[in-house]
């Protein structure tokens, strides 16, 4: 990971497609840290976009995706992961030569493959995944410091230019992030374990909480299942665009649960304590 | 649940056996809310017990379990769940007639059965489980408000007297808790889902976090696996003293995970969204 921010002006105008929690936070962070950059917002709801301007997250907004594509030299797609490809398809012809496009999607392999098909001579797409978020949704919860000291994974394909990858990385660094670079496939395998699997486990545990039991769930249950509050449509898209790695990590989880089952069933105190100590050890690395 | 606290003086002297997070908090809450009650601490480490006195959690301490049993009319066992029965066995002969004994153990059926065998004419044991805690350990983290507005499950057996059950319930109410009464078996089935199962899921997910992946784990992973930080010996004892219900809830969890596996494998968007929406709905009841 490379943490040194660049002071070279990277972009003149940045367009944020989809101004929700992440898009609003990108705007706020840019305005705070790169006052020389003009920040545009693109969306479908004029009142919400104007509210983001009023909060100081954007300089201006448009409902016309092509207008922003013509005017800006970096386009950041913050729409749901299954709307990124159609969104890029709509604007790629309108871009000036040399325009860079990136995104904040949670899965990268399918997306980067599909965008490779779309990419022409004029624009370059470099995938990104800033690992930051909140259980809140909407630009009104956006924060200029949402990305500070968090990790952004930049996922170049072999056809990307070194300059394009560097500039996208520098963009995230300019928002305060540490940047890690890996292939789209490696990203998806990593996030299957660190993000998608915990969501499945949380949702499965939450589902077993019959209403009559809710009064007896304390903070442990709440913490463990908090992410099950996330948007079902968003997570459905994440699981279905990362099927292979998610199925692999799910199989590994069920394997571990089988170990627990056998140890409890046979009353194997030593094995149970060994498993729990291993889990505690791994978790302590995150404290 | 019954939330009305009683103003009748319930006990003259209360002995806390095992002054850790829960024992220290019980002492602090009693001192704050029932200044007329004398609070004794019983343990094996004089310096730590004196520190609890210095923090105002106890009036006095002793290293002699029988001395406290002779002097006090309520004994609250806050030792690890597998040390409660030997602890009660050691002191039951020393008690004055009419002494009440309760505990804070996380599993109840085996414990209440074994203590029934021990109970004589002179003392009555009524099991309790105050559902409150912290990921911190030790009396130094004890708080007078740890129990406020939380639920305490009181688990009478058929042989318990109505008066004994009422007095133990009133004791927890006097610390600010709401009291629910159920059989030891029903308690164990309930907590298997609301407490023991999330711990297994959290530990299993935590175990899959190889060190090289830790940098890519964000708040979702942290929340979901936080309880895996808990003491492995404590949780081993919990799982092994609640084997049947834990195995049943674990089987239910693996069933749900199989549903997810099939839906992801076959790309069944509708089923996946249905499952996630159901989980979100159950979790929202806790917000």
Polypeptide structure, described:
Two copies of one chain form a homodimer. Chain A has 287 residues and is of the alpha/beta class. Chain A folds into two domains: 13-182, Rossmann fold (3-Layer(aba) Sandwich); 187-284, 6-phosphogluconate dehydrogenase C-terminal fold, CATH 1.10.3660.10. The first copy, chain A, is 48% helix and 13% strand. Chain A contains eleven helices and nine strands. Chain A has helices at residues 21-33, 46-54, 65-71, 84-91, 109-118, 162-174, 184-207, 219-225, 232-240, 243-265, 269-284, and strands at residues 13-17, 38-42, 60-62, 74-77, 99-103, 123-125, 127-130, 151-155, 178-181. A six-stranded parallel sheet of chain A has the order 3-2-1-4-5-6, with helices on both faces. In chain A, strands 7-8-9 form a three-stranded mixed sheet, with helices on one face. Chains A and B meet through helix 7, helix 8, helix 9, helix 10 and helix 11 of A and helix 7, helix 8, helix 9, helix 10 and helix 11 of B.
The coarse overall form of chain A would be: elongated
CA radius of gyration of chain A: 21 Å
Q: In percent, how much strand structure appears in the residues of chain A?
A: 5-15%
Q: Biggest sheet of chain A, open or closed, and with what strands and sense?
A: 6 strands, parallel
Mean of pLDDT of chain A: 93
Q: Give the N-terminus to C-terminus distance of chain A in angstroms.
A: 20 Å
State the helix count of chain A. Answer: 11
Assign the CATH architecture of the largest domain in chain A: 3-Layer(aba) Sandwich
Order of helices and strands of chain A: EHEHEHEHEHEEEHEHHHHH
């Amino acid at each position: 990971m490379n943490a040194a921010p660049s002071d070279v002006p990277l972009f003149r105008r940045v367009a944020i497609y989809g101004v929700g929690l992440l898009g609003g936070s990108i705007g706020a962070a840019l305005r705070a840290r790169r006052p020389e950059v003009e920040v545009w917002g693109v969306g479908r709801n004029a009142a919400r976009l104007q509210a983001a301007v009023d909060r100081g997250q954007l300089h201006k907004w448009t409902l016309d995706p092509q207008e922003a594509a013509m005017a800006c030299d970096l386009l950041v797609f913050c729409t749901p992961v299954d709307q990124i490809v159609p969104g890029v398809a709509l604007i790629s012809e309108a871009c000036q030569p040399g325009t860079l496009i990136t995104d904040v999607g949670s899965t990268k392999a399918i997306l980067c493959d599909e965008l490779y098909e779309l990419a022409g001579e004029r624009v370059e797409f470099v995938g990104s995944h800033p690992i930051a978020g909140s259980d809140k949704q909407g630009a009104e919860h956006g924060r200029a410091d949402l990305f500070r000291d968090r990790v952004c994974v930049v996922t170049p394909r072999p056809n990307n230019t070194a300059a394009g990858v560097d500039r996208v990385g520098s963009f995230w660094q300019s928002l305060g992030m540490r940047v890690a670079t890996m292939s789209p496939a490696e990203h998806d395998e990593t996030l299957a374990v660190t993000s998608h699997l915990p969501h499945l486990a949380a949702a499965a545990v939450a589902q077993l909480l019959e209403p009559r039991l809710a009064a007896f769930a304390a903070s442990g249950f709440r913490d463990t299942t908090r992410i099950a509050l996330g948007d079902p449509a968003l997570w459905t898209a994440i699981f279905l665009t990362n099927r292979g790695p998610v199925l692999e990590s799910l199989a590994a989880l069920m394997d571990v649960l089988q170990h627990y089952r056998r140890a409890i069933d046979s009353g194997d105190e030593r094995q149970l304590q060994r498993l729990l100590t291993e889990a505690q050890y791994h978790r302590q690395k995150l404290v």
